[in-house]
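does this look right to u?? adenosine monophosphate version
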Amino acid sequence: MLLVFLGPPGSGKGTQSKRLLEHFRLPHLSTGELLRQAIQANTPLGRLAVQYMNQGKLVPDPLVLSLVGEVLERPEYAPGCLFDGFPRTLQQARSLDEFLGGRGTPLDVVVELRANEDELIARMLRRAAVERRADDTPQTIKRRMEVYNQQTHPLVEYYHTRGLLETIDALGSTEDVFERIRSRIEARAHERVNQTM
Ligand code: AMP
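got this back:
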């Protein structure tokens, strides 16, 4: 199964993707995590990416695409994966479609977590106090929300027109949100099995 997880900063993508990975036993592909690892390891990619990330900006498409391309070549990603925080631009979405189309394994479902923006900002400020993430200052949080609205939100329409989108209310307990996501994904998987029979 190939699954994309979309959602504004603070929508609980990280928490929910961990639950989904455990439940569906899928490999995880989080570009945010890969980039943070590159920064920690002080690789050339990390040194470039950190300049964008600390300003709440997106890392340029060519850097992200080559990173994802490299990871997808690994054998453990052959059966599928959960894309978390990727794609984030239309160019990334088109490149991913091209890549997966070339392999004959198109995306199965795109889950969009949706919630009120003020609630999300409040959540991120709470997380910043706990996790001390360098990109969680009030300024970068605001910037990341603007970047999401401008550059990533158009993907909702992109995937909706392709019949792949499932929009989920991101507010509520972790358990409730997880149940909503799980039931929609399983319903999609059943539909797919029925279509192929
Ligand atoms: P995340 O952990 O997904 O919230 O990502 C943290 C930061 O990493 C983002 O604010 C971006 O600066 C960068 N980033 C992560 N994924 C991407 C992507 N697909 N394209 C561009 N930048 C990304």
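The first strand starts at residue 2 and ends at 6. idk if thats expected tbh
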